[in-house]
UniProtKB/TrEMBL annotation:
<keyword id="KW-0472">Membrane</keyword>
<keyword id="KW-0653">Protein transport</keyword>
<dbReference type="Pfam" id="PF14938">
    <property type="entry name" value="SNAP"/>
</dbReference>
<comment type="similarity">
    <text>Belongs to the SNAP family.</text>
</comment>
<dbReference type="GO" id="GO:0005774">
    <property type="term" value="C:vacuolar membrane"/>
</dbReference>
<dbReference type="GO" id="GO:0005483">
    <property type="term" value="F:soluble NSF attachment protein activity"/>
</dbReference>
<keyword id="KW-0931">ER-Golgi transport</keyword>
<dbReference type="GO" id="GO:0031201">
    <property type="term" value="C:SNARE complex"/>
</dbReference>
<dbReference type="GO" id="GO:0006886">
    <property type="term" value="P:intracellular protein transport"/>
</dbReference>
<dbReference type="InterPro" id="IPR011990">
    <property type="entry name" value="TPR-like_helical_dom_sf"/>
</dbReference>
<dbReference type="GO" id="GO:0019905">
    <property type="term" value="F:syntaxin binding"/>
</dbReference>
<keyword id="KW-0813">Transport</keyword>
<protein>
    <recommendedName>
        <fullName>Gamma-soluble NSF attachment protein</fullName>
    </recommendedName>
</protein>
<dbReference type="InterPro" id="IPR000744">
    <property type="entry name" value="NSF_attach"/>
</dbReference>
<dbReference type="GO" id="GO:0016192">
    <property type="term" value="P:vesicle-mediated transport"/>
</dbReference>
C-alpha cells in the first residue's frame, strides 16, 4: 500500500476499529496513527473536508487511548479546517470540544485559548456566539486565577457588543474587566475600563446609567483618585450643563485617547442623538445635527 494514499490509510484504520469474528478488540493505537497520517496527507493535498473528517476520527481514537491532550490537538486541527471550509457551527462545536478535552487533562489556559480561537472565527458570522465564547474563555481563566489574561477578552467582547448595538452589555463587559483588574491590582486598566463603561452609556444616550456607573465606580479608591475619574466627572458635568464644545474637547483628551480603540471611536462621536440638557432639575430635548443643535 503506497504511504501517499490517504484513502487507503483511512480504510485500513476503519478496519482496525471494527470488531468481527476474527477481531475481538479494536486496535485504536494503530488506527489513530493511520488517521493522523491520512489527515496530514489530505491537508497537504488541500482536501480539507476529508482532512477534517480524518482529524475527527483521530481525536476519537486519542480519546479511546485515554489521551485527552492529543485528542484536543486533533480536534483543534479539525476546527481550523472547518473554519477554512466556512462550517461555522462545526467551528464552534469542535473548538468547544477541544476546550473540554484540555480541561480533562487539567490545562485551563489551552482550554480558554481554544474558545478564543472559536470566538475570533465567529465574530463576523455569528457574533452572539462569539461573545458567549469570549465570556466562557474569561471564566475559565478567572477560575484559574489568571485574571490579567482576561483583559483583552473582555475588550473583544465589548467590541462585538458595540457592533451589535448592545451597549449595556458592552459596558458590562468593561465593568467585568475592571473587576478582574481590581483582583490583580492593575489599577490603570481598572480605571480605563470604568471610564470606558461610562462613555459607552453616554453614547447610548443613557445619562442616568452613566451617572450611576460613575457613582458606583467612585466607591473604588483607585478610580476616585485617577485621571479617568476626573475626565468622567467633567464629561458628566458638561452633559448636565449642555456644554457640547466641552464634551467634544474632553473626547479628544489624552485620557480618552489611551482607552480601548472601540471606546475611543464612540467617544469621538459624543454627544450623539437626542442630547438631554439638564439644568435646575428641568429637562429640555435637543436634537444634534452635525455641529448644530436646535431646540424642539
Amino acid at each position: 500500500m503506497p504511504v501517499s494514499d490517504p484513502e487507503k490509510l483511512i480504510a485500513k484504520a476503519d478496519k482496525l476499529t471494527k470488531l468481527s469474528l476474527t477481531r475481538w478488540s479494536a486496535d485504536w493505537r494503530n488506527a489513530t496513527l493511520l488517521y493522523e497520517e491520512a489527515a496530514n496527507l489530505f491537508r497537504v493535498a488541500k482536501k480539507n473536508e476529508k482532512a477534517k473528517e480524518a482529524f475527527e476520527k483521530a481525536s476519537k481514537g486519542q480519546e479511546m487511548l485515554s489521551s485527552p491532550w492529543d485528542a484536543a490537538k486533533d480536534m483543534e486541527s479539525a476546527a481550523a479546517l472547518a473554519k477554512e471550509l466556512g462550517n461555522w457551527n462545526e467551528v464552534s462545536d469542535f473548538y468547544g470540544r477541544a476546550s473540554e478535552l484540555y480541561m480533562e487533562c487539567g490545562r485551563p489556559q489551552p482550554a480558554s485559548d481554544a474558545l478564543v480561537k472559536a470566538a475570533r472565527a465567529l465574530e463576523d458570522t455569528i457574533p452572539d456566539a462569539a461573545v458567549q465564547l469570549y465570556n466562557e474563555a474569561s471564566a475559565i481563566l478567572e477560575e484559574d486565577g489568571k485574571e490579567q489574561m482576561t483583559f483583552d477578552l473582555y475588550c473583544a467582547a465589548s467590541s462585538v457588543y458595540v457592533k451589535l448595538e448592545k451597549y449595556s452589555a458592552a459596558a458590562t463587559s468593561l465593568l467585568q474587566l475592571g473587576l478582574a483588574a481590581d483582583k490583580c491590582n492593575a489599577t490603570n486598566s481598572q480605571c480605563k475600563a470604568y471610564l470606558g463603561a461610562i462613555i459607552v452609556y453616554l453614547y447610548a444616550h443613557d445619562f442616568k446609567q452613566a451617572e450611576k456607573c460613575y457613582n458606583d465606580c467612585s466607591q473604588v479608591d483607585a478610580f476616585l483618585r485617577s485621571d479617568q475619574n476626573r475626565c468622567a466627572s467633567k464629561l458628566l458635568s458638561a452633559y448636565t450643563e449642555g456644554d457640547i464644545e466641552e464634551i467634544k474637547r474632553l473626547a479628544q483628551s489624552s485620557t480618552v485617547s489611551n482607552l480601548d480603540h472601540v471606546v475611543i471611536k464612540l467617544a469621538r462621536k459624543l454627544p450623539t442623538g437626542d442630547f438631554i440638557l439638564i439644568t435646575n432639575n428641568s429637562v429640555s430635548n435637543f436634537t444634534l445635527d452635525g455641529d448644530e443643535k436646535q431646540e424642539r
